[in-house]
Amino acid sequence: MGILRADHPDIENFILMKRDGKSVGNFNISVAATDSFMEAVKKGTSFEVYDPYRKKIVDRKDARKVFRMIVESAWAIGDPGLIFIDRINQSNPTRGMGLIDATNPCGEQPLHAYESCNLGSINVANYFAPGTSDLFDWERFGKTIEMAVRFLDDVIDVNKYPLPEIDAVTKGNRRIGLGVMGWADLLILMKIRYDSPEALAVADKLGAFLRAKAVAASEKLARTRGSFPNIAKSVFKGRKMRNATVFTIAPTGTISRIAGCSSSIEPVFAFEFTSHIIDSKLQDVHPLFLEWKQENPGKMPPPYFVTAHDIAPEGHIKMQAAFQKHVDNSVSKTINLPHEAALLDVEKAYLQAYALGTKGITIYRDGCREEQVLNKADAPDRRLPEERPDTLNSITDKIKTGFGNLYVTITFFNQKPFEVFASIGKSGYSTMADAEAIGRLISLALRTGVDPKEVVSQIAGIGGSDPVFTEGGLVTSIPDAIAKVLERHFGTLKNGGSKDMWQSVCKQCGATLPDEKCPTCPNCGWNKCS
What we know:
Number of strands: 19
Helix content: 25-40%
Number of helices: 15
Strand content: 15-25%
Distance between the termini: 70 Å
């Protein structure tokens, strides 16, 4: 996670640095939005710019202009998110150790310098208890919470740290983050729609219960193991507390897949979807949805089978805020927007997240990036051109055309044709432009994985105004000449080329000319021999 304060002199460059879709691709980025910045956005005023190197205020900027830039970039590529940094520091139990400047990669764990995150999540769907008044086994859930707090505290001691500074700060605060996953599954089992008041009520009760039980478990551990060493610099001074923090909502992407449940507090992304993981694709059907379909063939699913894109942005944010009330660290939550969402939708989401007391927000508009981790099962695969290496091997062939000699260069990557460059001289600017355009389009096709023989099938035999016989037979046009060069290296087509192989066309209007020695265009009157 890369974070820069909104009042930093370079904030505009930071906001825009991922807009090319290539830079810092393995980083999430977020703007640390101060309270003064957010208030200036609401009021439409300017805010102070502070230079951390010179340690002084150096400028003032238009808050709404900077905020608009954040919104536009988030709409375009999903970055940057917002971290409400003052809110994080105000609620930090170890604020006696100084300010927190950043978080872990998904924003749910604010950390001091050299501090590490130690996270674990409970699959709450496993505590669904049909037949009980709340449909939930609170007693068993409480016992699991106590066990999980002890487990995470043990992890701090058995872990091997790469630096002595990380070892010292981590053991000094003993910060843990117990959280949940399977939340959407639990709501489906309870037959409660994700964005309903009933769901928010269950979230409030479950969050409060987990926080209370986790704090009690940490206090109990402190009585036998001792409090965390930095307790005198914390809000727990004078009390017994084993861990500075206990509750975090992490994204649980991989562990929820292993556990076979929905991730974190997210709604189900899609009941049938494709996951892109490294170079592979995984097809998934949600097990509860599959079970319902098998039991109810041909029927429409009930309204509690709701997906991420069926939920309005405010529904996502309200759920995040419901948990954040009880979370002493923070909440990782993606506010999913449909592809057609407008800039105003992003702006409203960011402002609502601040108003409802969250510590940060991340939005993602479906399809705003060329590649994304999750895709609906019915979404078409988009074929994207491969990136070009700096150096490629190539061959160049010369072939005679009616406009002079054409030079065709073919580059190769991974032993396959990758690009085609066509150049023809002394024939006029338009002819050179046509040759370049054809080469570019062929290159795009090859870089996207189209078979070169398919390319040949589309351009071979296209007629032109100046066909010419060469050693290799009749060359009817520049596209036909390129096709013949490709055929030299990748094989001749079995079924020949296009049907218009012997056609001649008018140079003025493109109409088909009659089959004569000196044909006159029947459309505009142009004569080939005049």
